[in-house]
From TrEMBL:
<dbReference type="InterPro" id="IPR032466">
    <property type="entry name" value="Metal_Hydrolase"/>
</dbReference>
<dbReference type="Pfam" id="PF07969">
    <property type="entry name" value="Amidohydro_3"/>
</dbReference>
<keyword id="KW-0378">Hydrolase</keyword>
<dbReference type="InterPro" id="IPR033932">
    <property type="entry name" value="YtcJ-like"/>
</dbReference>
<dbReference type="InterPro" id="IPR013108">
    <property type="entry name" value="Amidohydro_3"/>
</dbReference>
<feature type="domain" description="Amidohydrolase 3">
    <location>
        <begin position="54"/>
        <end position="550"/>
    </location>
</feature>
<dbReference type="InterPro" id="IPR011059">
    <property type="entry name" value="Metal-dep_hydrolase_composite"/>
</dbReference>
<dbReference type="GO" id="GO:0016810">
    <property type="term" value="F:hydrolase activity, acting on carbon-nitrogen (but not peptide) bonds"/>
</dbReference>
<protein>
    <submittedName>
        <fullName>Amidohydrolase 3</fullName>
    </submittedName>
</protein>
Amino acid sequence: MTQTEIADLIVTNAVVRTMDPAQPSAEAFAVAGGKLLAVGSAADVEAYKGATTRIVDLDGQAVMPGLMDVHNHHGIAGLHNVFELKFPDTASVDDICTAVQGYIAEHPDAEWVHGSIWGSQLLGELSTSGPLKQLDAISGDKKVILTDDSHHNRFANTAAMRAAGIEDDTPNPPSGGVIVRDEDGRPTGLLFEGAGVMVSKAAAKADPMTTDKAAACSADAIKTMHAVGVTAFLDAGATLHTLNGLKELDDRGELKIWASSCMLINDHVFGAEQLGEELFPHREVTRSAHHRPDFAKIFLDGVPMSYTGAFLEPYLPSESHGCAHKGHTTMPYAELEHWLLHCAAKGINVKVHCCGDASVRFVLDAVAKVRAAGHADTLFHVAHGQFVNPDDIKRFRELGVVADISPPLWFPSILVEAMEAVRPAEDIARIAPNRSLAESGAIISGGSDWPVMPDPNPWTGIAGLITRADPTGQHPGQLAPDQAISIDQALAAYTINTARALGIEAFTGSLTVGKSADFVVLDRDPYGVAPEKLASTVVRETWFEGEKVYTKA
Ligand SMILES: [Zn+2]
């Protein structure tokens, strides 16, 4: 056999887990032009060695494909990290006011103070008049807007509410959302969903986002992703600035990750200026070698904890919502079907936020119409989907709908406790039906929902998929343990399955000849340790297109 191709790079003496069922493991691989030239035994790969080939001997360390995140909000994560006041979600109202006061002292020219994140445990206190008085007293005419841990709600001071036109007699926004009031009917500063967006929009008007700023946010977030081994992601709620920022980074030669983004069709969270039809024309303009704005995003409901997830059966009885409350979707079925058909006709894939099982069923019904209309290839994601009616499980595979299982809510946690408080026990008993979905042949694809969840590290989710137990050990027990999946299925959810979910499996997602050389070097072989040991896996190196983009210090 004659070898004409010479490798730029040979990685050898490794335990290579390829995530390619045709050749699940190997010792070495060769890379040329950023792509895999050969994968196999050390001797096989040696044949591609030339005078200029760089040899990386890993001394038995484990290697697998770069990890993938099917659902994050990387631009917001970068924005929080680079440009905003940060305080921990355990902060008290006093702590938060002290932090805001400090920020104002350090940034005397800032008209607006953006801060995050306050924990949902403050909701009761923030519904009273005291905290607003306290915040107003230290902020004066500076406008302050603070985001909560669900990223759906805000706490704003009086100056910020005034700037958004929120006065004592302002009604709740027709788009959905609540201006929470005290017993005298005055706003308390606590703003749910659309009401918070009113203030976000006023802030954006006063202090506009720019392409350079968006690029800086993306660059910071990508640095964080590289450090946890992520080499591909889908931003689940991109604004025009996000799209422009990613394109700008790629033009500068700095986008060293496969970035996909969802153009927002509706918005109950972000305060985006352009939506749907206004964003779609920017799709081709912001496309680049590493950026694919190939998805749209629809929020079809809210979250169970605030009784805004849309369910087939009622919530547990409550004082606030009575006995028959099932939640409701953000749009009627006909509008959803219209959007899915419209996007499919334009070649745009769609991710739909569905927290309740009624929303999930709406999407499956609408996708059935899209498939019947002849659109076989459009990708559809049910995002979150912790609650799926058993009758609907098999429809994911039948209709080719991806289960975007994000964030990791398949083991005991504070968020799961919050859902247990509002949903019947039989719903909780079959929460996050990952095994049923996987066994039915559906694609389950892992995501972080970072920064809604504080950490984009995939290993917590991977470990929990297998054990259904809290990898941090803070919350005892297992959650619906019959829905545990295997290590193969769990790793696939964060690699090849997500590549398929993003429509990029032809060139990444597994260590297969011809694909991009996107890989991570790990401190342990995921197949060689107990599942409980997976959560603390450390990524030592991350490589993208054959180039090392991260080394652990
Ligand atoms: Zn999200």
